[in-house]
Amino acid sequence: MSTPTRTAIVTGAARGIGAGVATRLAQDGFAVAVVDLDEVACKKVADEIAAAGGTALAVGIDVADEEAVATGVARIAEELGDPVVLVNNAGIIRDNLLFKMATSDWDAVMGVHLRGAFLMSRAAQAYMTKARWGRIVNLSSTSALGNRGQANYAAAKAGVQGFTKTLALELGKFGVTANAIAPGFIETDMTAATAERMGIGFDDFKKHMAAEIPVARTGTPADIAAAVSFFASEGAGFVSGQVLYVAGGPKD
């Protein structure tokens, strides 16, 4: 008898790390909800998954909006099946030194990273606890250890780690694990924009960053997707409350 297809939600999945994770989970056999602020942008990733033989649904959700989260997750459950894997990847940056950082930039980053992870996890855990099986994977960052010009982002990503460990404590008895992945430098549109803002060509920026990384290369979305794949697997059921630094060398 075949095993029913499990449903996974990946936020911030229209591009970059999220798109890579959504694609990998589809390859692993999950039906994937490709979630981002713009549903049209999600459709490209969902269509690519479908073209490769997978099952995907594009869903536009503002993860910081409580009503949008409730409506979106309910739609995913109805159209794809009850979600039992959640990858909280949605994120933004509003970098600046502390004395120049606007309150709105602090609030925006906290809203997407922390409020968003909270709202999505609270909505999805109802399905996971009912199924007595679930996987929550939260995206942190090496910036959680502190990074100049990122007081908001660093605080949010450190908060994600504490949030993850608390979910592991609360949800473990229901067969639900919660883990965090803290990427180092990953080649995405976001890091390319950082290079542009600094007035550096992206290739030169990557070369500079690679020189500081023990494995002598920068990361790709596929590197993060591989780690998510493990945490979302049946075999990872005894791993919970952990923070895995995927950064090409020691960070913690």
Description of the molecule:
The protein has helices spanning 16-27, 39-51, 66-79, 103-131, 151-171, 189-197, 202-210, 221-231; strands spanning 7-11, 31-36, 55-60, 83-88, 134-139, 176-183, 243-246. With 252 residues, it is α/β, with parallel strands linked by helices. The chain has a single domain, classed as Rossmann fold (3-Layer(aba) Sandwich). The protein starts with 6 loop residues before the first strand and ends in a 6-residue tail after the last strand.
SSE map:
Layout: E1 7-11, H1 16-27, E2 31-36, H2 39-51, E3 55-60, H3 66-79, E4 83-88, H4 103-131, E5 134-139, H5 151-171, E6 176-183, H6 189-197, H7 202-210, H8 221-231, E7 243-246
Parallel strand pairs: 1-2, 1-4, 2-3, 4-5, 5-6, 6-7
Q: Return the average pLDDT rounded to an integer.
A: 96
CATH second-level architecture: 3-Layer(aba) Sandwich
**What Rg is obtained from the alpha carbons, in whole angstroms?**
17 Å
Number of domains: 1
Order of helices and strands: EHEHEHEHEHEHHHE
Low-confidence stretches: none
Percent helix range: 40-55%
Instruction: State the fourth-level CATH superfamily.
Output: NAD(P)-binding Rossmann-like Domain
Number of strands: 7
| Termini gap | 44 Å
CATH uppermost class? Alpha Beta
CATH level 3 topology: Rossmann fold
Largest sheet report: 7 strands, parallel
> Counting H and I runs of at least 4 residues, what is the number of helices?
8
Q: What structural category characterises the helix and strand content? A: alpha/beta
What is the 3D shape? Answer: globular
As laid out across the biggest beta sheet, the strand order is 3-2-1-4-5-6-7
Strand composition percent: 15-25%
